[in-house]
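Revision sheet: structure tokens.
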Amino acid sequence: MSEFRIEKDSLGEVFVPVAAYWGAQTQRAIHNFPISGLKPYPAFIWAMAVIKRAAATVNHELGLFNDKQAGNRLVTGDEMAQAIINAADEVIAGQWPEQFVVDPIQAGAGTSHNMNVNEVIANLANLALGYTLEASGKPISPNDHVNMAQSTNDTIPTAIRLGCLWRLDELLETLDRLAAAFRAKAAEFDDVVKSGRTHLQDAVPVRLGQEFGAYARSIERNREKVAQAAEGLRRLGIGGTATGSGLNAHPEYHGRMVITLSRLTGLALSESDDLFESMQSMGDAVHFSGALRTLAQDMARIANDFRLLSSGPSTGLDEIRLPPVQPGSSIMPGKVNPVLAEMLNMAMYQVMGNDLTVMLAGQAGQLELNVMMPIIAYNLFQSMDILINSLNAFNEKCLIGVQANREKATGWLAKNAILVTALNPVIGYLKGAEVAKEAMASNRTVREVVVEKGYLSGEEVDRLLDVRSLTDGGIHK
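Predicted:
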């Protein structure tokens, strides 16, 4: 058993790997929940460590750290608070990621997550004070000191909020770059007049630049939705402790924690106006997830368009050419697939599935607590991670290098009998329908059929069917 040390909790003794910084409760969770093999996201570890650091700071300022006799020395409250702060700072800086090991699919509310953080920070602090991991009577307790004035029930929802806000600017900047790239392509492709399509059937002309400009605007609107939805996450319920009553927390703790967390994170945060509501409801997290889902469904739609517009090339639309980034087939030489658009589809489907999990978990709370918070946290952080990474990859490896196939786009447009729509104000809908049917049946142009039937002269048709002017709307006579 030299590879293990003995730790104790309220249920008894537990064998913990001798080099592990976690303790008994974390080890029980490792044993009890070998479910997915997943580990908490860095955003979650960072958020929890920030909370522990802020709590140590606030509780120390309130004079709640008492001196303690530990072994043959007296450890002052100042020393204990500073040791916790220093240990939390190490975790905040990204050290010790291998010590956070509890599966996100675990006991309800996230007690195992919370205790994993408490135990690691406590042991790091004790080591800094000169105590060994094996020592009995270590001065700093995971529960009494690192978790002072806290409960899993207010730290986990606070960590969810902070963790999402931690990467919010990164996500918004990703969307800004993506929208700007679409805007640039819209300007580049503004001279390409092509066949519009509705119901996947021929429609009146549009410019390729108009299609790409619409993609840009969609992304800009989704950026607004995400930013607006994130505002509710800034309202923190830390200090509600177990049920929202604030039991075991100093009366000034909640307000001081919000101020301290704002200072430590640089985030604009505010106090909850109802700590009981903040304990009960995951509504803000569900709302934010919904904004991510809306973004994902719009990006999936755009990815589908890219796959369709680049289809073929010989037997498809082939109106745009995507950068070739890897061979497309293990058996068909020369085949190149729209892999970045395909990746984007899959990434967005994962985000949409995550949102369903968050929504179901959000409504599964009962009375004073939502016990499904660990899976809400994991899915939100994964969605943000996937969105940032996939959108950046799509932008840098696909969108920036997209080229218009002007010849193919104008060629399809020339065959489009629906151009006759522009003649409706002059020859009427019924004659227009007659012309369209005959043009498609005989594989001739609208111009040829209209002139043959004597409805208009060639000069009149050419003026009315100026395809560039048709993309600007209005009535053509």
